[in-house]
Sequence to fold (356 residues):
Amino acid sequence: MPAQGGNLAGQPVRTAARNADRHGKQPWRTASGHQSEIHETSRFDPKGRYNAPMRFSIWPDASRPWPEVMSLVRHCDVTGWDGAYVADHFMPNSPASERPVGPVLECWTSLAGLAAITSSLRVGSLVTAITYRHPAVIAKAAATIDQISNGRFLLGLGTGWQANEHNAYGIDLPDPKTRLDRLEEVCIVVTSLLTSPRSTFLGAHYRLDDAPCAPKPLQQRLPLLIGGNGEQRTMAIAARFAEEWNGWCTADLFRRKASVLNRHCEAFGRDPSSIARSTQALLYLSKDRRWLEERRAEPTHRPRLIGTSAEVIDQISEYAEIGLDELIIPDRTLGSLTAREDLCDWFITEIAPAFR
Fold:
């Protein structure tokens, strides 16, 4: 039995490729024919019930070798998954004074590579730390990857938090208020650069002087995701600027965060159904009851989906009832490359259809 992932005995494997287009989606298409994630209609019916299909995305662990990351994402690209995300870090996390040894693939070069080898998945950063790059550099890279992907890029932004890599590389990590102030300015700068022929801006942290950004993204409006659970500032910034908000959440916490996000949208005069909501959870999928109970007994601070197909469907249903648009599955608990691909097939063929 594998130490990680699920017990695959008796499960259909490598079948998802035959059903890649079964849900008939044409995601992210704009009037110009390019792709976009902006919602054009309400995700709720006239009685306020959530009625939009859920999207499912894979989050490959950047500590894995590039051939494995590439193989899994290509596999998901042809088997009906909706997206692939890459985290923005330079080294493993640890206490700020430590310098752990371990490989971590760089986010933006990885995204460019994944954009070039896929044809249907949305690719995005989860999330880019604004402390690492000037927003003009972020905008330029985002526009380029949108060109490479033929209009499938999503830009995820966050304040940055991992102290050990900031310390190791001599990158400033300001206090939370300053980082949030900077995030707000970054959203203004990036949005202007991606949509305007020229941009001029003078803020407390960034300035532009008649700055161009060409070529533009293929998408009419490249979707912006803001990541973070901070209720006072982070989620308000998401409500003001973003097409999608993301945070690690259990179903109960997601219910609270959805309510907070709705209130921020209303304060800005925005329809709450116009911003997508996403979260991620570790997946433990198996038919082996004993193995599942062992996983449930393990301590963790991350949300988890643990059980058989039916049990995982029930757990995802709790999110769906509150209005979750996208569920992101990290691959860190899914075992070897073969096991990861098989579990992705199992999930996308037996679980995902219940929410599409």
